[in-house]
C-alpha cells in the first residue's frame, strides 16, 4: 500500500520540476495547482506525482517567505547565512557576538537566582567579576581564548578581547529583543538566526559610487576593444598609451566647448575596467584563442566510465544498537586458532551496552527515524534528524520490509530532555537553522515526554527482552543471565530486525494512548495525511547546510572535491567563480545519506550553490558505503604486498639492465658524466680565469678628460673657433707624454699641448715628401673662464 504525502505549500511557493520553474497557487483534492513561469500554463500535479518529481535531478522547493523568515537576508543585504559573508573576520565576529550574548545570558540567569531583583545594565556588566565570568564562558563556547584586558607591555594579543559593559549590554539587548520577537531562544519559526542578527555589516562599508565618468569608461572600453583584446596579448601599458591619445582628442573637443578635461586613469583602474568587461575565461579566449582556452580552462570529466559487476555493491555501516561480537558472520571460520583465541580475549573488552535513538510523531505515533549509536552524541542526533527528514526507501529495500515507513517531512516543533547527546551546540544550531522550535523539557519529568518514553518501553518489552545479550532494565535485574557472554548477535542483523519491527510490526499494533483510541498508528498516519497534511519539507540546501557533513575545500575547474575523492560540480559554481574571481576555500555540505547533490557556500555569493555528483558510480550509495568501498579497494594482505613489491622491483631491475646492455652492444656514446669527470672539467674551466684591466695608452687622453678643467687636465678647447683643427700628423713618433700627475700647473702646462701644424705652406713638390715641422709649444691660457 502506497501513501502519497501531502505537503503544505503556501501560495506563492516556487517549485522547479523537470527544470521548469513553477509557482504553487493552491491545493485541490487531487494535487497541487501550479502555474509555469515560462509560458503561464496552469497545471495540476497530483500528490503522488510530486513525490516522484522531487526525487529527480533539478527538483527544488523555495517556499514563500513569511514576515519573519527573511529577516537575516534583509539585514545582511541578501546573504542567506553568516557563512556566506565575504569577510572571514566578519564571520568570526558574528560567532564572537553570539557567544558573548549566550555567556551574558548565563551570567544574568545565575545572578537572578541569587537575587530576583537583579537587572542587567552596562555598569553591572562592566564589573571585573562579571566580565571575567563572561570571558570564561566565552572561552568554553568559542574554543578560543577570550581575555578581559590586553597583555601588559604591548605587543599583539592572541585571542579575543572582551568589550566593556556598555557594549556588552547593547548586544545583549538586541539578543533579548530577538528572543521576545520570535518567541524562543534566538530563532524564529522560519529560521532566523542569532549570528545573522549580531553580525557586523562590514560588507556595506565604503563608497559605492563610481569615480570615473561614463565618457571616460567608454574610451577605456574602446581602447581595450581596439588593441587590448588581441591574440598578440598586449599589456595594460600598451592599452594605456592608446587611451592617452583618445583622451587627448576628446579633451581638445571638450576644451572648445568649455567642458572640464578628462584625466588619464591609472593602469590599475584600466585593468579593473577590463575585469568588469570580461571574465577570466572570456579574456583568455580573446588573447589566447579558443583552443588554448579549452586546454587550460576546459571542464574535465571525473566520472567513472567503466561499470563492472559488483561495482555498485551496497554495504550499510551504521552505529551499533546492541552488543557486537568479533564473531562476525562469515568470517569466524576463516580465522586460525590463535586468531580465534585473541578475538575471544578481546571480546571481553569490545562488548558493551549501546544506545538507540528514536524520533517519533506524537500525532500518529509513527516512528520517523531510528539510529543505533555507541554513545549518545551530537553526530548520532544529527543522523537521526537526517533520517526523519528524508525518504527511507533504502532501508525498506535493504532489509526486506513488507510495508512503507513514514515519509520524510519537516519538523516544526521538537522537544527533548537535557541529555548531552540531544541538547548540545551542534544540534541546537541545526534546529535553529532548519526553522525548528526546540523545546527543552524538565529533567526527571517523564510526563513532559510521555509519548516518547512509551515507545521505548514497548520496544524494550517486546523486542529487546527476547534478544540474546539482553542486559535488563536496571543493574541486577537478571542476575542469572550473562549478557556479555551471550552478546553474539551481529549488528547488521540486529539493525535489520529493528527496522522490520518499526516498519512492519509496531505501526500495525493497536495503540491505546491518549488520542489514539485503540487505532493503529498506520491508520492514524493515513487519516491525518489525507485531512490536514504534513509540515512541508525543508529546502534541500538548507537541510544539507544544517544537518549534513561539512567540508572545506578549494574549488577548481573540475568542481569541489570532498572526502578525498568525491567530486561535485555545476555550471552555477563555475559561473560564481568567474564573476566573483574567488580564490580560497569554500564550505561544502553533503548529505551522507544522499550523495547525488551537495551545497556550496562561497564567501561573497549571497545564495547557496547546488552542485551535482560527478562520479555516478556513487549515485546510489551513502557516504559511509563509499568510504568503506574505498577502504576495501586499498586493503591488502601484508604478504601479498611484499610479493608484489619484490616482483615489481625485479621487473624494474631487469628493465634497467636491458637498457645498459643495449648501449654496450651497440657501442652507443655515453650521455652522462660521472661526479669525478664533472669536478675535473670544472677545474679546467675555472683555472687561471681573470679579467684584464684596460689602461690609457701613453701620449693619449681618456675620453672623459678631454674637457676637464682640473689642474691635471691634459686637453682643452682653445678659442671660439671651429672645434676641428686641420693639421698633418708627425711622421716621426712623438715622445710619450709624461704622467700628467707628475707635472704641476706652473711648469708642465707648456709641454702638455702641441700647436697644430700650419697647413697654408704645407704644399710640397710632387714626388717629395712634405717637410716635417716641429710642433710649437703653447702656453696655458691665463683666463680659463673666458674659454667656456
UniProtKB/TrEMBL annotation:
Residues 323-529 form the Integrase catalytic domain. InterPro entries: Integrase_cat-core (IPR001584), RNaseH-like_sf (IPR012337), RNaseH_sf (IPR036397). Residues 731-788 are annotated as: Disordered. Transmembrane segments: none annotated. Residues 762-776 have a biased composition (Low complexity). SUPFAM superfamilies: Ribonuclease H-like. This is Integrase catalytic domain-containing protein. The lineage of its organism: Bacteria, Pseudomonadati, Pseudomonadota, Alphaproteobacteria, Rhodobacterales.
Amino acid at each position: 500500500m502506497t501513501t502519497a504525502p501531502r505537503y503544505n505549500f503556501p501560495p506563492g511557493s516556487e517549485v522547479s520540476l523537470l527544470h521548469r520553474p513553477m509557482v504553487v497557487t493552491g491545493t485541490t483534492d487531487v494535487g497541487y495547482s501550479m502555474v509555469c513561469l515560462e509560458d503561464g500554463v496552469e497545471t495540476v500535479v497530483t500528490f503522488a506525482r510530486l513525490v516522484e518529481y522531487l526525487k529527480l535531478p533539478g527538483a527544488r522547493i523555495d517556499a514563500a517567505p513569511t514576515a519573519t523568515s527573511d529577516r537575516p537576508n534583509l539585514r545582511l543585504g541578501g546573504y542567506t547565512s553568516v557563512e556566506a559573508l565575504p569577510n572571514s573576520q566578519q564571520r568570526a565576529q558574528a560567532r564572537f557576538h553570539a557567544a558573548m550574548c549566550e555567556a551574558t545570558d548565563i551570567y544574568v540567569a545565575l545572578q537572578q537566582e541569587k537575587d530576583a531583583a537583579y537587572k542587567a545594565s552596562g555598569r553591572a556588566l562592566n564589573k571585573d567579576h562579571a566580565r571575567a565570568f563572561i570571558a570564561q564562558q566565552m572561552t568554553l563556547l568559542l574554543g578560543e581564548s577570550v581575555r578581559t584586558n590586553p597583555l601588559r607591555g604591548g605587543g599583539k594579543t592572541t585571542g579575543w578581547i572582551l568589550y566593556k559593559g556598555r557594549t556588552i549590554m547593547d548586544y545583549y539587548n538586541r539578543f533579548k529583543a530577538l528572543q521576545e520577537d520570535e518567541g524562543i531562544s534566538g530563532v524564529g519559526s522560519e529560521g532566523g538566526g542569532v549570528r545573522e542578527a549580531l553580525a557586523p555589516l562590514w560588507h556595506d562599508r565604503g563608497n559605492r559610487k563610481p569615480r570615473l565618468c561614463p565618457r571616460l569608461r567608454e574610451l577605456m572600453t574602446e581602447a581595450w576593444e581596439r588593441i587590448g583584446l588581441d591574440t598578440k596579448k598586449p599589456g595594460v601599458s600598451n592599452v594605456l598609451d592608446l587611451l592617452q591619445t583618445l583622451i587627448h582628442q576628446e579633451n581638445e573637443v571638450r576644451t572648445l566647448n568649455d567642458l572640464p578635461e578628462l584625466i588619464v586613469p591609472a593602469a590599475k583602474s584600466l585593468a579593473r575596467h577590463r575585469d568588469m568587461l570580461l571574465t577570466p575565461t572570456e579574456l583568455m579566449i580573446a588573447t589566447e584563442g579558443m583552443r588554448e582556452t579549452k586546454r587550460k580552462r576546459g571542464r574535465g570529466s571525473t566520472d567513472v566510465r567503466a561499470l563492472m559487476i559488483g561495482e555498485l555493491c551496497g554495504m550499510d555501516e551504521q552505529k551499533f544498537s546492541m552488543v557486537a561480537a568479533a564473531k562476525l558472520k562469515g568470517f569466524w571460520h576463516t580465522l586460525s586458532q590463535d586468531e580465534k583465541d585473541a578475538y575471544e580475549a578481546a571480546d571481553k573488552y569490545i562488548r558493551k551496552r549501546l544506545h538507540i535513538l528514536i524520533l517519533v510523531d506524537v500525532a500518529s505515533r509513527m516512528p520517523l527515524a531510528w539510529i543505533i549509536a555507541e554513545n549518545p552524541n551530537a553526530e548520532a542526533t544529527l543522523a537521526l534528524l537526517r533520517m526523519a527528514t528524508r525518504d527511507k526507501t533504502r532501508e525498506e529495500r535493504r532489509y526486506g520490509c513488507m510495508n512503507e515507513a513514514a515519509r520524510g517531512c519537516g519538523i516544526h516543533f521538537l522537544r527533548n530532555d537535557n541529555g548531552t547527546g540531544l541538547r548540545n551546540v551542534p544540534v541546537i544550531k541545526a534546529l535553529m537553522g532548519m526553522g525548528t522550535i526546540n523545546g527543552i523539557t524538565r529533567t526527571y519529568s517523564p510526563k513532559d515526554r510521555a509519548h516518547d518514553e512509551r515507545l521505548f518501553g514497548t520496544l524494550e518489552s517486546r523486542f529487546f527482552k527476547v534478544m540474546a545479550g539482553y542486559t535488563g532494565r536496571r543493574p541486577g535485574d537478571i542476575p542469572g543471565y550473562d549478557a556479555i557472554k551471550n552478546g553474539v548477535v551481529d549488528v547488521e542483523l540486529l539493525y535489520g530486525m529493528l527496522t522490520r519491527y518499526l516498519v512492519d510490526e509496531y505501526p500495525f499494533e493497536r495503540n491505546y494512548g491518549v488520542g489514539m483510541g485503540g487505532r493503529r498508528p498506520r491508520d492514524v498516519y493515513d487519516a491525518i495525511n489525507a485531512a490536514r497534511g504534513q509540515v512541508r519539507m525543508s529546502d534541500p540546501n538548507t537541510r544539507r547546510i544544517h544537518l549534513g557533513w561539512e567540508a572545506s575545500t578549494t574549488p577548481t575547474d573540475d568542481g569541489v572535491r570532498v572526502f578525498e575523492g568525491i567530486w561535485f560540480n555545476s555550471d552555477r559554481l563555475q559561473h560564481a567563480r568567474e564573476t566573483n574571481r574567488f580564490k580560497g576555500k569554500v564550505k561544502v555540505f553533503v548529505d551522507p545519506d544522499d550523495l547525488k547533490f551537495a551545497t556550496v557556500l562561497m564567501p561573497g555569493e549571497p545564495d547557496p550553490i547546488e552542485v551535482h555528483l560527478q562520479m555516478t558510480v556513487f549515485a546510489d550509495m551513502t557516504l559511509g558505503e563509499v568510504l568503506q568501498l574505498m577502504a576495501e579497494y586499498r586493503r591488502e594482505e601484508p604478504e601479498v604486498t611484499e610479493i608484489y613489491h619484490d616482483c615489481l622491483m625485479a621487473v624494474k631491475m631487469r628493465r634497467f639492465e636491458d637498457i645498459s646492455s643495449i648501449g654496450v652492444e651497440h657501442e652507443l656514446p655515453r650521455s652522462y658524466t660521472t661526479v669525478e669527470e664533472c669536478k675535473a672539467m670544472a677545474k679546467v674551466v675555472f683555472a687561471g680565469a681573470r679579467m684584464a684591466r684596460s689602461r690609457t695608452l701613453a701620449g693619449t687622453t681618456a675620453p672623459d678628460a678631454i674637457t676637464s678643467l682640473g689642474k691635471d687636465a691634459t686637453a682643452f678647447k682653445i678659442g671660439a673657433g671651429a672645434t676641428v683643427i686641420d693639421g698633418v700628423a708627425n711622421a716621426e713618433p712623438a715622445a710619450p707624454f709624461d704622467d700628467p700627475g707628475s707635472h704641476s700647473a706652473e711648469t708642465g702646462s707648456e709641454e702638455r699641448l702641441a700647436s697644430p701644424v700650419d697647413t697654408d705652406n704645407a704644399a710640397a713638390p710632387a714626388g717629395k715628401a712634405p717637410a716635417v715641422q716641429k710642433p710649437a709649444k703653447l702656453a696655458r691660457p691665463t683666463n680659463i673662464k673666458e674659454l667656456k
